[in-house]
UniProtKB/TrEMBL annotation:
Annotated GO MF terms: oxidoreductase activity
Domain (FAD/NAD(P)-binding) ranges: 22-352
Family indicated by similarity: Belongs to the class-I pyridine nucleotide-disulfide oxidoreductase family.
Species: Rhodococcus artemisiae
Entry keywords, A to Z: FAD, Flavoprotein, NAD, Oxidoreductase
Full protein name: NAD(P)/FAD-dependent oxidoreductase
Keyword Flavoprotein in annotation: yes
Cofactor: FAD
Domain Pyridine nucleotide-disulphide oxidoreductase dimerisation: 383-488
Length: 497
């Protein structure tokens, strides 16, 4: 279906006038923007507007979290089945049914139809306004589109515009029309040979599903010495080893210097963009591929937001723990999600948005902001994340290195995930876990798990870190038997005298 959103607006969203006033105006209708608007007006007669130039639901719903995990999950299920006696004898396929996987992915992205999201907003009392928005003064937003509008906010304007993928300005690279993350998650064709540029989360997950879905040759070019530089080394090494076992070629300490693609065509998102491309690398070699995927980072979507009209630096947005934009005049401007640079993860954007919405509501009602719920403290060393590679990595808080860089004296407790629950999960289960403990307080400041489907382990660690639970008390948090969570007991046992 078309990704053009104009026809999916609700009747309330299509009204236009020269000037409109709302209590809260949110620029960007992704998960963070939606939550900020909802929390700011919940249980009140306040009004809110969401301004969006693409699809209501944002990057996560259509081009990031949802489609990427939909691409990865079927092969994980197949892998578990083929290593389970009593089941593996009935699994005849070596690979997933690619058309069926893509069809399922498209169900999760609603075929890029955001009408259900608009209906949700309408039911929540939130107006959806289509168009590109920018600040034109304090509490004032102009929306460009078929029906230009000037909006005024009584209480707050919230920036929730997210980030956009960056493509390095290397000779020939941009002209080659490489895939970005949007193409990779919405792929319609599987390139036989693919070059992934980057070694972060997007690069690793993309390389994983390209190989799983049938790409014959996948090469990953990584500038640094390892994948996933921000996770514990043992976790990144496990992912690298698995990729290499499955014939993904990893080129560490290497960069692309130039690209040539004589037959380049803009064939659409997720389609192979023309003929073969040749990438020249810093080690003097070349790689010929059918498609390039650039996964070298993202930048805040602040261009053309009109930040200068309210006296702000046009290059970036910073916020305090109330999510109020710093450097501005007053407490009417907020920023949540990726755009503020604090934690580029959907769940953290939604968390910030809940805090932000509550702060807006409290200020509108002249209530004090003394309660901890009005401060976004989880952004400081308590951020959970799951990387859906094979094997999975889940982590929260510090790594051992980042804790030491922060000046903490830490002890690291490590254990293989070798418990009854893991063996029952699948016969070939392998995994490892580490807890980072602050010696001064004897509480956790970080945890990392790597293994099959370890995503569900991280919330326990998150609660322990946020709650500052002493290790002595964790002995009394008894893991159910037989579950993979029993690894917590094994980790604590490494500390016994």
């Amino acid at each position: 279906m078309s990704s053009e959103p104009a026809d999916s607006a609700s009747p309330a969203s299509e009204t236009a006038s020269d000037s409109d006033t709302f209590d809260v105006i949110v620029l960007g209708a992704g998960p963070a923007g939606e939550n900020a608007a909802q929390y700011a007006i919940a249980g009140s007669d306040r009004t809110a507007a969401l301004v969006e130039h693409e699809l209501v639901g944002g990057e996560c719903s259509y081009w990031a979290c949802m489609p990427s995990k939909a691409l990865l999950r079927p092969t994980q299920v197949l892998g578990t089945a083929t290593h389970m006696p009593g089941v593996q004898q009935h699994v005849t396929a070596e690979h997933v049914d690619v058309p069926a996987v893509l069809t399922r992915r498209d169900r999760f992205t609603s075929g890029h139809d955001d009408s259900s999201q608009v209906l949700w907003a309408d039911a929540a009392g939130i107006d959806v306004i289509r168009g590109h928005a920018h600040l034109t003064g304090p509490r004032t937003v102009t929306v460009d589109g078929d029906h230009p509008r000037t909006l005024h906010a009584r209480h707050a304007v919230v920036l929730a515009t997210g980030t956009v993928a960056t493509v390095p300005d290397l000779p020939g690279l941009r002209a080659a029309l490489p895939w970005t993350s949007r193409d990779a998650t919405n792929l319609q064709q599987i390139p036989r040979r693919a070059l992934v540029i980057g070694g972060g989360v997007v690069a690793c997950e993309t390389a994983t599903w390209l190989r799983q879905l049938g790409a014959d040759e996948v090469t990953v070019v990584v500038r640094g010495p390892r994948l996933l530089a921000r996770v514990e080394p043992f976790a990144s090494e496990a992912v690298a080893a698995r990729m290499q076992t499955h014939d993904v070629r990893l080129r560490f300490g290497t960069e692309v210097t130039a690209v040539t693609r004589p037959d380049v065509r803009d064939t659409g998102v997720g389609m192979i963009h023309g003929g073969p491309a040749t990438a020249e690398l810093t080690d003097g070699t070349t790689v010929e591929v059918d498609e390039l995927v650039v996964a070298t980072g993202r930048r805040a979507a602040v261009d053309h937001l009109g930040l200068h009209t309210v006296g702000l630096d046009t290059g970036n947005v910073t916020v305090d723990d109330h999510l109020t934009v710093t450097g501005g005049d007053g407490t009417w401007l907020y920023a949540v999600g990726d755009v503020n640079g604090r934690a580029a993860l959907t769940h953290m954007g939604k968390y910030q948005a809940r805090v932000c919405g509550d702060v807006i509501a409290a200020r509108a009602e002249n209530r004090p902001l003394d309660d901890p719920r009005y401060r976004a403290g989880a952004d400081h060393g308590q951020i959970p994340q799951v990387i859906f590679t094979v094997p999975e990595i889940s982590s929260v808080g510090h790594t051992a290195d980042s804790a030491r860089d922060a000046g903490l004296d830490v002890e690291v407790l490590e254990a293989d995930i070798d418990v009854a629950g893991a063996a029952l999960h699948r016969d070939d289960f392998t995994g490892h876990a580490a807890l980072v403990v602050d010696r001064a307080t004897d509480v956790l400041v970080g945890a990392t798990f790597v293994g099959s489907e370890v995503a569900e382990l991280v919330h326990t660690a998150t609660v322990a870190i946020v709650g500052k639970v002493p290790l002595g008390l964790l002995w009394h948090a008894v893991p159910a038997y037989p579950t993979i969570s029993e690894v917590w007991l094994r980790l604590l046992e490494t500390r016994r005298p």
